[in-house]
Amino acid sequence: MSIRHGLLALLERGQMYGYQLRAAFEESTGSTWPLNIGQVYTTLSRLERDGLVRPLPESEAGQRPYEITDAGRADLALWFATPISRNDRPRDELAIKLALALTTPGVDVRSVVQAQRSATMRTLQELTRLKYGSDRPEDLPWRLVLDSMVFQAEAEVRWLDHCESSLVRHQPNRPTPPPPRPPDGGASDGARWADEEARR
Asked: Does the model's pTM come out above 0.70?
């Protein structure tokens, strides 16, 4: 998730200060990705450094709102117009973990898969419970976020099924044993013939 573009999208609605941005972000995503206030202000500092937002004078309560700049609007429009590549997403830690488990001596890969399946199923149940917790029209944005997470969890369960099936069929390569040494210490037939010819 790009917090940078999330904050730009919120500021496109109008000027806000840090706590308002955090509240609006969590409202939009149904608190699916909790955002701490430190992340908000760190991101705002970077956006200001890059000329994408500008700070406004503090209010009487000491709160400093920010507004999006023209450069920020252009950056936001480009983000919305550009599909997200899978190469831009974080590495799939689970896939890497299972690949390493398979090649690390002493690791029970099936136990790793089972533990992950149990955790994913619990997550799936919780997401489904949240999804049906509200059907208000204003909850549509975060219900769509939940749908995305439900689909990802379901896909993960299917992938774990595939992993288990593959493990059942898996025949690890075993080292080829060396050929048995001949009783005379290893001389080949040709060498033995040459030796016999020499003795004649």
From this structure: no
